[in-house]
Amino acid sequence: MTVEEKTQWLEFWDSFLSSWKRVRFVRRDAIRELKRYIGYTLKLSRRNDPFYASMRDSIKDFHRELRSSGTITQDAVRAAEVLDWCDSIRTQVASPTSPRDSEITLSAIAPRNGEVVILGASGFIGRRVVAKLNAAGHPVTAVVRRSTALPLELRGGLAGEAVRVLRARLEDPDSLQQVVQGARAVIHLATGGGATWPEVEATMVNGSLTVANACLEHGVNRFVYVSSIAALYLGPERADEEIEDDDPVDAKPEARALYSRGKIVTENVLRDLHRERGLPLVIVRPGVVLGLGTPMQHSGLGFWARDNHCVGWGRGDHPLPVVWVDDVADALVAVVEGAKDDVEGKALHLCSRTPLSASEVVAELRASTGRFIQFHPRSLWLSQLLEIGKWLVKLAGRRPDAQFPSFRDLKSRALVPPFSARIARERLKWRPVENREEFLTKAVRVYGQQQQ
Fold first, then answer.
1. What pLDDT, in 10s, does the model give residues 335-361?
2. pLDDT at residue 71, as a whole number
3. What is the value of pTM for the model shown?
4. pLDDT (tens digit, 9 = 90+) per residue, 15-69?
């Protein structure tokens, strides 16, 4: 808190004294907050900032009510309803021209032969795949986790009954069995995830394996697993290589972040199923997918310390394997429409050769949005030292999640080597946007147009 008082001096000197005192108060408060943070991080004092205190007291009140009466007035069902309301409000705000009374209903579960099933259909890439398959005349089943968060283009179908909407979760084997029935092809875009490896393994790995087994049981002709180039090791040591399609995944998954590790292990178990039981598998690994519909603070560009400050995975001056989201959707449609033996058992990289670095993309975001967005180059070694510093603080604070930071994972995030994407180009006739100006207009400058 600062206190300002008028003085006996002339206005110019009175203004100077007020500013001088204000700086002193602000400096004192800043030092006090720093001491508080260090104190509760090292378990030397009790954390009591407003956010933490409100959450702590809310939890205490919940358990106090439960112990005293045996019932609670606000249960998980009502909490889920609140979240659904928030999702609906967000959808309406994003699309103010949509009819507010439009119903969001699930389709009949009865199987339809020849279906193209898309898991994760409401996502950034999934909704575009649905639209493109529908435009090409394919019967589509859009599978989502929650029907209340559907984008407008999936509400009521895109063309009558051509698109049906079903609900399923990777953690629910019965629901996955139902949505796969009658499918000719399945595109698996659902990610799964979690805060720990057992959680990631249960959703991303085991959930994908459940989908794959259901595809075998129901005679699906093509199972497309959308992985990521994050499953590969892409550190500076590979700068002089060109990464070919079907390049093996990182041989050290335990040294990678949870998302990358999950993709690595999932690819391996699906390949085993392909070899041992003939799963009609195609693996697709998109690069840094850009375009309207996902936050512009993409982790492929760097670590976003704030929403307008991006710290590079290195200097950020080398071309990134960027790709426009619509080009990814086109490739997935081509995989579904292709012949059985064209790409089966292969891994396809979907990366353009657009000459754009992370620092250049961030600079374009700044220019197109008018926001003060900055890119900060930082050596990988310095970033690693800072991560070790965080790890030491966690150790001192006896944090259970304290794990020594992986330098291998940090280096791989730099995405240094170029990609050929040869199989998609040759066998699918894939032609992504690679002209620099056209790519910037379609995939980056759209964020500025959205704000207008």
1. 999 866 789 999 999 999 999 999 999
2. 66
3. 0.81
4. 888 888 888 888 888 888 888 888 877 777 888 878 888 888 888 887 887 787 7
Q: Which residues of the chain have pLDDT under 70?
A: 1-7, 70-77, 87-88, 90-111, 147-161, 339-340, 450-452
- Round to whole Å and give the CA distance between 323 and 443: 8
Q: Which of 300, 280, 285, 211 is closest to 245 using CA atoms?
A: 285
Q: Which residues contact 304 (CB under 8 A, 6 or more apart)?
A: 297, 310, 311
> What domains can you pick out in the chain, each with its CATH number?
115-296+321-353+417-438 (3.40.50.720)
Shortest CA distance to 281 belongs to which of 295, 267, 297?
267
170 Cβ neighbours under 8 A, 6+ residues apart: 119, 176, 190, 192, 203, 204, 206, 207, 208, 210, 211
Helix (H), strand (E), coil (C) string for the chain:
CCCCCCCCCCHHHHHHHHHHHHHHHHHHHHHHHHHHHHHHHCCCCCCCCHHHHHHHHHHHHHHHHHHHHCCCCCCHHHHHHHHHHHHHHHHHHHCCCCCCCCCCCCCCCCCCCCEEEEECCCCCCHHHHHHHHHHCCCCEEEEECCHHHCCHHHCCCCCCCCEEEEECCCCCHHHHHHHHCCEEEEEECCCCCCCCHHHHHHHHHHHHHHHHHHHHHCCCCEEEEECCHHHCCCCHHHCCCCECCCCCCCCCHHHCCHHHHHHHHHHHHHHHHHHHHCCCEEEEEECEEECCCCCCCCCCCCEEEECCEEECCECCCCECCEEEHHHHHHHHHHHHHCCCCCCCCCEEEECCCCCCEHHHHHHHHHHHHCCCCEEECECHHHHHHHHHHHHHHHHHCCCCCCCCCCHHHHHHCCCCCCECCHHHHHHCCCCCCCCHHHHHHHHHCHHHHHHC
Q: Which pair of tokens denotes residue 434?
A: 């690679």
Residues 6+ apart with CB under 8 A from 18: 4
| Rounded Cα–Cα distance for residues 186 and 119 (Å) | 8
